[in-house]
User: Which sequence fits this backbone?
């Protein structure tokens, strides 16, 4: 796989104002270097003011970096902005509304802005509306759409010129749970279609569920980057496993305690109505060892209902990384 | 298979065809016209404008027919035609000067307010096409207003007294005014973040251009009257002619820089000398100072001014965030 986005020593400093301009200057991005491979769904995570939007705006050719450069599909954002615009689809963290436009007119207008011939636009708009499930709202005013629909329309807009790279700033921000799921599914679908996706978010569940790689930024610096599993290994001393069994729990505890990789075990709540016991334990082994432990439990006659890694791991990775434990 | 002659020269697309192509294929023009004409406000503006114009023409005609010495001879009818023409052109000129900044002041600032500016900047739409699209849509609405006023001008021509050249010159002045006052609004809009601020600044600028200069002209006239006495000194006839020439030049430039002053001065020259293009001003040494009619200078100066403002707007729009 080849690198589609290459951020090299990127620094963005906003000049301060007034007599103390130099002191008031803010360094939003500080010597950021990272690479996004073709076909990646790259989750760019960080607290508010970490420098995510500044990085994205530089990538979208809207902002000039103070130092460094970003290459998108081999084109420099500072020297070849037009070529970069041809290969990116940019979705900001807000929805720019033309209140008096219809849904199809909105896409048609942006299609024309990307120099797509009028005849080609007609079919393209129909395909895109189908992809984002808005065909039934084709002739409705854009202003009347729900926030989730607007976000899907915005995603359709970013795709109108068939870009290789999608740059999405907080795509699920402010959406209700259903709309969030829909946007997430669309992003996965687009990655399946061969698009490389670079998205920033606050929502760690999104990162955990769809990202192939993650970058964590804090105070403008990249504090961790890699596959989620790699980050977990790097940042978490042990994995946390959730286990739900039907009684008896004593036999389960015995099997767990016999395993050298199992650390502390926490007993969860017992729900008498369905006879389930929930346990949580630390595990220091690899996937093979984890698989063996499950086999041991089953062969010991324990009725396992759930055996999974704790989904809150991403939150823990994020908290550890942004506390400065990595740097 | 047919052989294509390789030496056949490819015909270059004519300039007017390229201009038309650029205009009709500009997505901003289509979008702006669509949204402007979709809203009922455009029709309301046209209706109010036509009612005002009709009332004005009706009053001029009424004033003529009810005057005691109206005999209805051809020269009087021509005078009515000329008065109606002057009134309609004057009102159209005021309309253009005041409406043009309103149409363009929000053109770019509103894109920033709606947060669509950044979306457009990441497309392949060049800054030049964006600015020209905004300008063209504003101009086309102004031209529509001028065109719907044609029947009233035709009424003036029915009475006679208005030549084709005079009508064309008037239309050219109106068009250049529309272009330059639209460009003024556009350049302010390209710098501002809010539509309200852009509109206020554009109007202050337009008001200074329309009413500030006549004040300067007033000062210039007073100065001229003092200067014509040679400032109480006793200059030689040659020196006096030189002073007069310089003062004429200053006065002329001030007139040529103001739409209303340029139109009125050109009309005075036309009535006095029966010439639409040039005249002469007498000097105290018996020589004459030749000048072209102010409307020509006005059109040339304001066309250049518009080109400069459009260029600046493109530059400001193209600017990447720092």
Assistant:
């Amino acid at each position: 796989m080849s690198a589609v986005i290459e951020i090299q020593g990127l620094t963005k400093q906003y000049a301060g104002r007034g007599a103390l301009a130099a002191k008031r200057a803010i360094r939003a991005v500080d010597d950021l270097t990272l690479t996004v491979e073709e076909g990646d769904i790259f989750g760019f995570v960080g607290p508010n003011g970490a420098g995510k939007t500044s990085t994205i705006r530089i990538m979208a050719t809207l902002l000039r970096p103070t130092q460094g450069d970003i290459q998108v599909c081999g084109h420099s954002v500072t020297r070849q902005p037009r070529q970069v615009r041809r290969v990116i689809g940019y979705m900001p963290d807000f929805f720019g509304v033309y209140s008096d436009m219809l849904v199809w007119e909105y896409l048609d207008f942006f299609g024309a802005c990307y120099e797509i011939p009028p005849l080609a636009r007609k079919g393209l708009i129909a395909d895109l509306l189908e992809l984002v499930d808005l065909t039934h709202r084709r002739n409705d005013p854009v202003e009347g759409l729900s926030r989730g629909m607007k976000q899907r329309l915005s995603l359709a807009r970013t795709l109108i010129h068939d870009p290789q790279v999608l740059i999405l700033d907080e795509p699920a921000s402010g959406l209700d749970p259903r709309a969030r799921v829909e946007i997430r599914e669309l992003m996965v679908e687009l990655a399946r279609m061969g698009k490389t996706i670079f998205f920033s978010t606050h929502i760690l569940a999104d990162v955990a569920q769809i990202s192939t790689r993650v970058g964590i930024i804090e105070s403008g610096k990249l504090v961790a980057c890699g596959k989620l599993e790699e980050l977990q290994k790097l940042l978490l001393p042990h994995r946390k496993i959730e286990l739900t069994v039907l009684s008896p729990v004593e036999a389960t505890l015995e099997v767990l305690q016999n395993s050298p990789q199992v650390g502390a075990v926490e007993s969860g709540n017992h729900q008498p109505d369905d006879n389930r016991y929930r346990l949580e334990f630390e595990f220091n082994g690899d996937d093979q060892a984890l698989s063996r432990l499950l086999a041991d439990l089953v062969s010991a006659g324990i009725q396992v209902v759930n055996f999974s890694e704790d989904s809150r791991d991403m939150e823990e990775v994020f908290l550890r990384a942004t506390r400065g434990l990595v740097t | 298979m047919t052989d294509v002659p390789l030496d056949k020269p490819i015909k270059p697309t004519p300039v007017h065809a390229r201009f038309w192509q650029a205009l009709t294929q500009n997505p901003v023009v289509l979008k702006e016209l669509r949204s402007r004409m979709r809203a009922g406000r455009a029709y309301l503006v046209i209706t109010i404008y036509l009612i005002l114009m009709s009332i004005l023409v009706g009053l001029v005609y009424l004033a003529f027919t009810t005057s005691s010495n109206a005999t209805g001879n051809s020269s009087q009818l021509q005078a009515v035609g000329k008065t109606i023409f002057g009134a309609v052109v004057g009102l159209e000129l005021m309309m253009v000067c005041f409406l043009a900044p309103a149409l363009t002041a929000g053109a770019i600032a509103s894109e920033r307010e709606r947060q669509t500016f950044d979306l457009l900047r990441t497309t392949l739409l060049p800054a030049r096409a964006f600015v020209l699209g905004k300008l063209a849509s504003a101009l086309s609405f102004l031209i529509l207003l001028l065109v719907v006023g044609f029947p009233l001008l035709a009424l003036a021509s029915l009475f006679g007294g208005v030549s084709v050249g005079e009508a064309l010159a008037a239309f050219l002045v109106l068009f250049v005014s529309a272009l330059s006052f639209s460009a003024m609004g556009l350049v302010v809009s390209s710098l501002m973040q809010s539509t309200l601020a852009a509109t206020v600044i554009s109007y202050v600028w337009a008001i200074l251009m329309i009413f500030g200069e006549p004040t300067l002209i007033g000062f210039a006239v007073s100065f001229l009257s003092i200067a014509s006495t040679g400032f109480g000194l006793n200059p030689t006839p040659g020196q006096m002619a030189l002073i007069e020439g310089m003062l004429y030049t200053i006065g002329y430039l001030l007139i040529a820089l103001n739409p209303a002053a340029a139109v009125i001065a050109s009309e005075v020259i036309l009535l006095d000398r029966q010439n639409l293009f040039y005249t002469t001003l007498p000097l105290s040494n018996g020589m004459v100072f030749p000048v072209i009619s102010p409307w020509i200078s006005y059109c040339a100066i304001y066309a250049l001014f518009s080109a400069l403002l459009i260029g600046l707007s493109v530059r400001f729009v193209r600017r990447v965030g720092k």
